[in-house]
Amino acid sequence: MSESSELSPTSRRRDVIIVGGGIAGLVAARRLLIDGHAVILCEATDRLGGALLGHRVGGIDLDAGAESFSTRGGVVVNLATELGLAEDIVNPNTYPGWIQPLDGAPFALPGMSLNGIPGSPVASDVIAVIGGRAAARAFLGDALLPGTVGSRASNLADLVRIRMGTAVLDRLVTPVVRGSRSISPADLGGDDMSPGLRAAMIREGSLARAVRVNQIGAARNAEAAGIRGGLFRLVAGLVADLERFGADIRLETVVSDVTASSVRTTGGTLHGTVVLAAPGLRPGGSPASTPLVLATLVLDAPELDSAPRGTGVLVTRGTPGVQARSLAHRTAKWPWLAERASGRHVVRLSYDESIDELGGERALAEIARQDAAALFGIDLPPASVVDFAGIEWKRVGRAVAESGTKSGPTIIGEEASGTGVTATVAHALTEVSSLFADDSH
């Protein structure tokens, strides 16, 4: 443990109630305990960790939820280091991602691109996807228009269409955005996936040059990493610290009637400063949730040894014969996992429907096998499936949280921070670190 993992004296010890034992709640509890406060952590289920869950498939321990994090700002790297996992931080292989278009074979995503927007519209890998005529239109339209044209577009789809044309939008941007965010570019603001893109376009005079500038920054600031053995290992380290620091952890404790200074639980009313890290309890109501189903296949398929689709495929909505929105070839992505799989392959497919809507778990297993075969372009007979597991998550949209006001509790978690482990951890630490900033010392 680092020095920052030791309890620190505080001039005013406060009682804090944290509702929700996902990664945000665990990180917040740990920080508050280190700062010398007393913490009660209430979790409605019988386990901690939320989406950082591990499961065993085909005899291999795997992440059932998030499997990687952005190294931006060093937030998660620092946390993992404090938990004794520094030597187990690993980077993925850098194979290119692929796209499955509505028709035809999958293709590798152009190397110089950002969320599907090409940094060089007439590059050979772009022409191979959209054709020479569309590539010329994208290049000339973007190069000849002043950088201000399209800067006021209300969404990413309009921005790309104005600057580079429909082919770039339909063949590149839409499948990337839909596959990674499960949303249409028409429903995203121009800066939602790439902060500062509009400003860079105005400054640089073209969208392509803005992409090149942003991509360089993204590569430098948002490199992906994981934990050897699974990202879920963070949970065990966090829970061990909470127990060591004396947190009062209450599992299977359902909370209702949340205010800034009290919560009602199945065991009675608790009083203290409340930090809400559980979706669905936000005062005034939380955003609607949507299903995300992850179907994991462990395969005996030597044809996949060459990683024919790199680290995975993003699927264009409506592609005939494929129901998945994306496929991740996890043993191609993570060298440590390839070692543990001993020649087998681990593949994970994502679906926007619930398991019931897909016909149940048995039907999901067959759908996943057929989708994997179609996306890889190989034969995957039932006998090639060593094991299968399906798990369903609920995605909660981001809400505007009136965090830290007198009228409500401090709100952390994905609905306040946005998606991603790094965003969630960073937001939780920022919120609880400033929780008692006005206390006199």
Summarize the structure.
With 441 residues, the protein is an alpha+beta fold.
Main traits of this protein?
FAD/NAD(P)-binding domain; protoporphyrinogen ix oxidase, domain 3; 3 domains; seven-stranded mixed β-sheet; five-stranded parallel β-sheet; 14 helices; 22 strands; 33% helix
General description of the model:
By secondary structure, the chain is α+β, with helices and mostly antiparallel strands. It folds into three domains: 12-52 and 73-87 and 230-287 and 397-433, FAD/NAD(P)-binding domain; 111-221, Orthogonal Bundle (protoporphyrinogen ix oxidase, domain 3), CATH 1.10.3110; 289-396, Polyamine Oxidase, Chain A, domain 2 (Alpha-Beta Complex). The chain has helices at residues 23-34, 75-82, 124-130, 132-144, 156-164, 166-181, 197-204, 207-221, 233-244, 330-333, 335-341, 361-376, 414-417, 421-433, and strands spanning 15-19, 38-42, 54-57, 60-63, 69-70, 89-90, 98-100, 107-108, 113-114, 117-118, 224-227, 248-250, 255-256, 262-265, 268-271, 273-276, 289-299, 312-315, 326-329, 345-351, 385-396, 410-411. Helix 1 (23-34) packs parallel to helix 9 (233-244), helix 1 runs parallel beside helix 14 and helix 7 crosses helix 8.
How does the SSE layout of this entry go?
Layout: E1 15-19, H1 23-34, E2 38-42, E3 54-57, E4 60-63, E5 69-70, H2 75-82, E6 89-90, E7 98-100, E8 107-108, E9 113-114, E10 117-118, H3 124-130, H4 132-144, H5 156-164, H6 166-181, H7 197-204, H8 207-221, E11 224-227, H9 233-244, E12 248-250, E13 255-256, E14 262-265, E15 268-271, E16 273-276, E17 289-299, E18 312-315, E19 326-329, H10 330-333, H11 335-341, E20 345-351, H12 361-376, E21 385-396, E22 410-411, H13 414-417, H14 421-433
Parallel strand pairs: 1-2, 1-16, 2-12, 7-18, 16-22
Antiparallel strand pairs: 3-4, 5-11, 6-11, 7-8, 9-10, 13-14, 14-15, 17-20, 17-21, 18-19, 19-20
Helix pairs in contact: 1-9, 1-14, 3-4, 5-6, 7-8
